[in-house]
Amino acid sequence: MKIALINENSQASKNEIVYTALKKVVEPMGHQVFNYGMYGAEDKNSLTYVQNGILTAILLNSGAVDYVITGCGTGAGAMLACNSFPGVICGYVVDPSDAYMFAQINDGNAISMPFAKGFGWGAELNLQYVFERLFEGESGQGYPRDRVIPEQRNKKILDEVKKVTYRDLVTILKELDQELLKGAISGERFKEYFFENCKDEKIAECIKEILD
């Protein structure tokens, strides 16, 4: 699995802490981590939580990654931004039980965490425990286990609803404020990571046009 990490400007200073915890947990499982920044408070390419959502949608819909870890001060803004787009099911995760239940019940492809609220002593341990529970075994297996059939049915219903209520991503990207969009994809390593892993030619071509 390819996993992206995205931090916005207010919590950019915590990027290395989150990145280190994520790698420590998932790399022994055989997953790859791609750090899309921001890489620190002084990073020249500043991302807002809205741009976190845009970048998340591009990465997931293009197949450049399979999962996104993001967040903001409270985690709420980034979650709302992510869920504004097709192809993204982003959960709000504070602690390990949130992570486990989101993975098993909702079977999403992104989480948003509060990197300011409650982020104090032992924060790196909470991050590790969250990532352990999030990527523990196969997702979508239900919790409690006797609820697996209705929960899997509801997930399929949600997927079908989202197909109707959202337009295709390329159309959305072309109609977004282009400066806002360009800012979301102007990170130091975006071109390297994205074009190396993108599986959707239409999205790749759209991104090339925007960057040019």
From TrEMBL:
Protein name in the entry: RpiB/LacA/LacB family sugar-phosphate isomerase
Domain Ribose-5-phosphate isomerase C-terminal span(s) in chain numbering: 164-210
InterPro entries named among the record's database cross-references: Ribose_5_isomerase_C, RpiB_LacA_LacB, RpiB_LacA_LacB_sf
SUPFAM superfamilies in UniProt: Ribose/Galactose isomerase RpiB/AlsB (SSF89623)
Family the entry assigns: Belongs to the LacAB/RpiB family.
Gene Ontology molecular functions: isomerase activity
Keyword field: Isomerase
